[in-house]
Design a protein that fits this description.
The structure is a single chain. The chain is built from twelve helices and eight strands. The two termini are 29 Å apart.
Length: 354
């Protein structure tokens, strides 16, 4: 298991920065999912509308990822530690390509991710739609991404967004991620993106199916570390009451090892100005999540965003909140929409590196 690198570079990040707007400009913030399939707030996402290889991969130079919280027994959660980068099907899958959004990511891009200090790639490996008839988005490309990431000392978490209308289909796709193997390279974790409401609008029934899916996945996954990509509770409790009533936090607690709250301040800034910046929404998101889980001892990998419409102040605030919370890891949504300036904040270069 890798260890966090502490706060080196943190004071350097906070000094000498101006309040410029970071503009990656590749993808619009109001189309985070590019039509579907990402782990952002549902208003801009899937509604169409988290094996042997080198253990010395690069670690983030941002906030400390040291945590005093107990780790799940016999499960390696190191894939959720430190700096991560998100890649969805629209970033790399030819069947999902939209030329106006620029070129697709290819396995060679993982070399640049590693150079930026990324320790884990969160890859949308499977989808439930006609463009992925076999479940896996693109078997050859997924294999190539997995191998290249491991060659670079990075880990890979395969993530999937269940729609809950057909639990057997959802479980089948999660099993495909669990069992995916290319010459001994396997996923280092599985994350379930819990946000889709459209196909099962009845909240009670959706909650029941979510709990059932999660428990069955846990039972079948053995020692595999499972992540839950979730809305921060503050969204339900203060910003959008009635959006997802009675979310089953307690029932889900034993199924997941790491929680990945989607603290997308850019998505709620207009309706909730109080939380419309990187620090306040991240702090509130993690705090309210902890209040619902294991007496505050849950492991958290915070996911901020959207990257290309966030300011330097947002990045700084996000990283400060993550550091204060002692989170296991952190990332911005997503890799393609994070500018060079953003990466300079997430993983500033070490002194003397040029």
């Amino acid at each position: 298991m890798r260890t966090g690198t502490g706060d080196h570079g943190w004071t350097r990040v906070l000094a000498g920065l101006t309040a410029i707007v970071l503009t990656a400009g590749v993808v619009s913030a109001v189309a985070m999912d590019r039509g579907a399939g990402s782990p952002p707030l549902e208003t801009t996402s899937e509604s169409d509308a988290p094996q042997p290889h080198p253990d010395g991969g690069r670690q983030a130079a941002g906030p400390s990822t040291t945590t005093t919280q107990p780790l799940p027994p016999d499960r390696d959660v190191s894939a959720y530690r430190g700096l991560g980068a998100w890649v969805d099907a629209f970033d790399y899958g030819p069947a999902y390509h939209r030329p106006r959004e620029g070129p697709l990511l290819v396995p060679d891009d993982l070399d640049d991710m590693a150079a930026r200090g990324v320790g884990t790639v969160f890859l949308q490996a499977a989808r439930l739609d006609e463009r992925s008839p076999e479940g896996i988005v693109d078997r050859a490309l997924v294999a190539a991404f997995l191998e290249r990431a491991h060659e670079n000392g990075m880990q890979v978490v395969g993530w999937y967004l269940p729609k809950f209308a057909d639990l057997e289909a959802d479980l089948a796709n999660l099993r495909l991620i669990r069992d995916f193997d290319v010459e001994g390279h396997r996923f280092d974790g599985i994350a379930v993106d819990i946000e889709y409401r459209k196909d099962v609008p009845d909240h009670a029934e959706r909650n029941r199916r979510l709990v059932d899916l999660s428990r069955r996945l846990r039972e079948e996954s053995g020692g595999q570390a499972l992540g839950a990509i979730v809305y921060p509770p503050v969204l339900f409790e203060e910003i959008r009451p009635g959006f997802w009533p009675d979310f089953p936090w307690t029932e889900l607690a034993e199924s997941y090892d790491v929680w990945l709250p989607m603290v997308y301040w850019t998505e709620i800034a207009r309706e909730a100005p109080l939380y419309g910046d990187g620090y306040r929404y991240t702090e509130a998101g993690i705090r309210t999540l902890m209040a619902h889980l294991a007496g505050g001892s849950a492991l958290v990998h915070a996911v901020g965003g959207v990257a290309d419409t966030s300011t330097v102040s947002d990045f700084e605030g996000f990283l400060r909140a993550v550091s204060e919370a002692g989170a296991l890891g952190f990332s911005m949504y997503d890799y393609r929409t994070t500018s060079d300036a953003g990466w300079g904040l997430l993983a500033p270069p070490a002194p003397g590196s040029g």
